[in-house]
Specification:
CATH class: Mainly Alpha
Pfam families: CMD
Number of strands: 0
InterPro entries: AhpD-like, AhpD_core, CMD-like
Domain Carboxymuconolactone decarboxylase-like: 12-94
Distance between the termini: 18 Å
Organism: Rhodocytophaga aerolata
Order of helices and strands: HHHHHHHH
Helix content: 55-70%
CATH superfamily: AhpD-like
Protein name: Carboxymuconolactone decarboxylase family protein
Largest sheet: none
Length: 146
């Protein structure tokens, strides 16, 4: 697959805006692991190889285990994730697959386990990685060979 347009070079102001959003997300009260669970799971759903590669490496550097990373696509069938992480992952899946709607059950579970600020920050984090996935996928951004 050949790389397409490099938006960062053609429209640097667009990337500046995206990085400003990332800066906001970096200051939220979500843990670094929660942020990476969101990023990895949404990227898996969207099939974004570039982002899966980047965020699994970053998660490992933060101390995330191989076992949890490998099981992330089947998180419902494992005991590895906390109730809060499960609510975040369920919301991540439904917001990422927005055309199927966010169920009241999923939303209420997340609202029960997260305060309003955290819930808003989770939703914004999901939106952020979905935007990055769409940039990477539409431009054929490839992970580096190592």
């Amino acid at each position: 697959m050949n790389q397409r347009i490099v938006i960062k070079e053609v429209e640097p102001k667009a990337y500046e805006a995206m990085f400003a959003f990332e800066k906001y997300l970096s200051r939220t009260k979500l843990t670094a692991i929660e942020k990476h669970l969101i990023k990895i799971r949404a990227s898996q759903i969207n099939g974004c190889a570039y982002c899966i590669n980047m965020h699994t490496k970053e998660a490992r550097e933060l101390g995330e285990t191989e076992q949890r990373i490998y099981a992330l696509s089947a998180w419902r069938d494992t005991p590895y994730f906390t109730e809060k992480e499960r609510a975040i992952l369920a919301l991540t899946e439904e917001v990422t697959l927005i055309h199927q709607k966010v169920s009241e059950k999923t939303y209420q579970q997340a609202a029960r386990l997260l305060d309003e600020v955290s819930l808003a920050q989770v939703i914004m984090s999901i939106i952020g990685i979905n935007a990055w996935n769409r940039i990477a996928i539409s431009t054929h951004l490839m992970p580096p060979l190592e």
